[in-house]
Design goal:
Largest sheet: 7 strands, parallel
Strand order of the largest sheet: 3-2-1-4-5-6-7
Helix content: 40-55%
Number of strands: 13
Strand content: 15-25%
Pfam family, one: Glycos_transf_1
Distance between the termini: 11 Å
CATH architecture of the largest domain: 3-Layer(aba) Sandwich
Shape: globular
Radius of gyration: 22 Å
Number of domains: 2
Order of helices and strands: EHEHEHHEHEHEHHEHEHEHEHEHEHEHHH
CATH class of the largest domain: Alpha Beta
Protein name: Glycosyltransferase family 4 protein
């Protein structure tokens, strides 16, 4: 038996963490193959982490996110015409390409791993393509962010509904990462009647012991209280709220330093950098790109903050913090209130309340005993609900056919 996972990804982050933990702890003994787009910036890390556990196959057929790169040297009018043509004919093309790929794979079952819904067109096409192959039971369609409502544009809405109808008929069902995320399927009536469920994400935080991060590497002042915000540089993650909060925090805890790190394009990172530079707390805020050593950072952090504003289905970094016995402060968005036991393993505050966010961070920074108590409670919660082994078994039982 050969189990295949298919994904399309544009950034390094939580989706990669999910894939690595799922496949690394897969309880079955069958051969595993992961299909991932060649343009994914985290592809080499997936290959490294899954070496000996899965065969990672990079597909290079055209997907929408690659058009700008592959046609970069063509005239602007050519790129516009190609984008228009791909919008009309790209989806049938993706169905054809994924169908052919699966037929050559020798696979007996498939789960599609999508960043969101509708998410990547290749993921939607793969669900349909697999059903056309007839190689095994229908695929479960896994998605990791809240379902977006139909477009207000009439033509786009018609196209989206047609694709939803095809995907719903082709899929065994939809599985996501939290109850809050699952409930958003109601935003698309065609999907609402499909089989659906949720399985909490899990991690293995015991793979290696954290290493000391030199203070000079982070440019931390002596005796700093470190607030860690690991998040991609997208507005939905709440960078603006956190930077405004820091202006209040440093008035009560002058030693507080905020480290923001994550993946993002030049424009996204520049926008946050401008917010930081215009802030009165600028000297207390460090901006860095994506880091692969979150356990190391958590070992020296006093608190982890995730001030998400929207589209936060779960919050992987929050679970990683709890596994490291680091207290957390999060907003009441998406699945975050399901992950954090408010008042026990951390705090949940309104996503619009900068004062509440500041107050809870200050409270933790000023009370070491409170940090230890909440950190211990978070570790227990992780061990009970969010281990990679538990997650992998739940997915295995979901798609297992015998």
């Amino acid at each position: 038996m050969k189990t295949v996972f298919f994904t399309q990804n544009v950034k390094r982050g939580g989706l990669d963490t999910f894939i690595i933990n799922l496949i690394s702890h897969w309880p079955g003994k069958e051969e595993i193959v992961l299909f991932c787009n060649l343009s994914h910036p985290g592809l080499s890390e997936l290959r490294k982490k899954l070496s000996g556990k899965a065969t990672v196959v990079a597909y290079d057929f055209m997907i929408a996110q690659d058009i700008g790169v592959k046609l970069a040297n063509f005239p602007h009018i050519v790129r516009l015409l190609f984008r228009g043509g791909f919008w009309l004919l790209g989806f049938p093309y993706l169905i054809l390409k994924t169908t052919r790929m699966f037929r050559c794979s020798g696979a007996s079952r498939l789960m599609v791993i999508n960043g969101g819904y509708p998410g990547g067109d290749a993921c939607l096409a793969a669900t349909i393509g697999w059903s056309l192959c007839g190689l095994g039971p229908r695929a479960w369609h896994n998605f990791h962010n809240l379902v977006l409502p139909y477009s207000a544009n009439p033509l786009r809405r018609i196209k989206e509904k047609i694709i939803d109808w095809l995907v719903a008929r082709a899929a065994a069902g939809f599985v996501t990462v939290s109850q809050a995320c699952m409930l958003t399927l109601s935003a698309r009536s065609i999907l609402a009647s499909s089989d659906n469920t949720f399985i909490y994400n899990g991690i293995d935080f015991n793979e290696r012991k954290p290493e000391l991060v030199p203070s000079c590497e982070l440019e931390l002042p002596t005796g700093a209280n470190l607030i860690l915000m690991p998040a991609v540089y997208e507005p939905r993650k709440g960078h603006s709220l956190m930077i405004r909060s820091m202006e209040k925090i440093i008035k009560h805890v002058p030693e507080a330093t905020l480290l923001i790190c994550g993946d993002g394009n030049f424009a996204e990172m520049s926008e946050v950098r401008c917010l930081r530079d215009d802030s009165t707390a600028a000297k207390h805020i460090i901006l860095q790109g994506h880091r692969c050593d979150l356990p190391n950072l958590l070992s020296i952090a006093d608190v982890l903050v995730l001030p998400s504003q929207e589209q936060e289905s779960f919050g992987y970094t929050v679970v990683e913090a709890m596994a490291a016995a680091c207290p957390v402060v999060v907003t009441d968005v998406g699945g975050l209130p399901e992950v954090v036991d408010d008042g026990e393993s951390g705090y949940v505050v309104s996503h619009t309340d900068v004062d509440a966010l500041s107050e809870k961070v200050i409270l933790l920074l000023q009370d070491k005993r409170l940090r230890r108590r909440m950190g211990s409670a978070g570790l227990c919660r992780y061990q009970q609900k969010f281990t990679a082994e538990r997650m992998a078994w739940d997915y295995f039982n979901l798609i297992d056919v015998g």
